[in-house]
Amino acid sequence: MTRIVCAQLAPRLGDLAGNQALTVAAVRRAADGGARVVVLPELATSGYVFETSEQARRVAVTPEHPLFARWASAARGAVVVGGFCELGADGHLYNSAAVVDRTGVLAVYRKTHLWDREKTVFTPGRDQPPVVRTQAGRIGVLICYDLEFPEMPRSMVLRGADLIAAPVNWPLVPRPAGERAPEIVLAMAAARANRVFVACCDRSGVERGVRWTEGTAVISHEGWVLGEPDADGVAAADIDLELARDKSLTAHADLLADRRPEMYSALTSATVHTGTVPHACAWSPRSR
């Protein structure tokens, strides 16, 4: 079994040193508790609600920054997936996540789908999200809003992901009493539709008037929530990642083998269809 821990934290906007200490302590606690994979929130090293790109630039770091070596040391052999504000070699800012193990930074993913005012600060990533082979298993990485595009988790599963680790910052939105946050529902659907484990690590607290959902969850390959935050903000679950490699639903149904890619060409089209869609079925009531 592989112990997955999501450490829900409340980073402080613009406090790189304080957030570094906060994340390192969280990774160390998770490792002490037997974690093999530790997931931290989106932009855990910087905070989120930037007013200007200049403000973000002051706390942006490169993947060579010493904080990642500190994550690696604190993890004691575990894999860490955590969000950070990246200063690219091209001078652009990226909302990124690093995958770190004892050897250092294994991969960096730059968020592809920027949410709302993120577009005024960050440049969207242009590279496919990674699926990283680690000692814990095959880990895919998405960030927050990426999960709301079904093509993203499906593409990772087609490339062999056992677990999708998703640093997130989900602003609190109204919902009916007793219902889960809509973002969690979407993550559960992605897990079930792809038979893949999903670990979403949200943040807590209030930042410049924005209150967060605190929707951290570890979700099974069948779409059920296995772990939610305790009083310390830690969500944990012990899972068998190899279960995600079996995509069969019944003796005659398989999530991947039953795909019909030739029917999905519109998914890769840049054209957005709006308004009335012409009836394209071979049969209609009028043909009777």
UniProtKB/TrEMBL annotation:
Which GO molecular function entries does the Swiss-Prot or TrEMBL record give? N-carbamoylputrescine amidase activity
By its UniProt entry, which InterPro entries does this protein fall under?
Answer: Aliph_Amidase/BUP, C-N_Hydrolase, C-N_Hydrolase_sf, UPF0012_CS
Protein's GO biological process = putrescine biosynthetic process from arginine
- Keywords for this protein: Hydrolase
Taxonomy, superkingdom: Bacteria
Q: Which Pfam families match?
A: CN_hydrolase
For the CN hydrolase domain, which residue ranges apply? 2-241
Q: Write out the similarity annotation.
A: Belongs to the carbon-nitrogen hydrolase superfamily. NIT1/NIT2 family.
The name on file for this protein is Predicted amidohydrolase
The organism is: Amycolatopsis marina
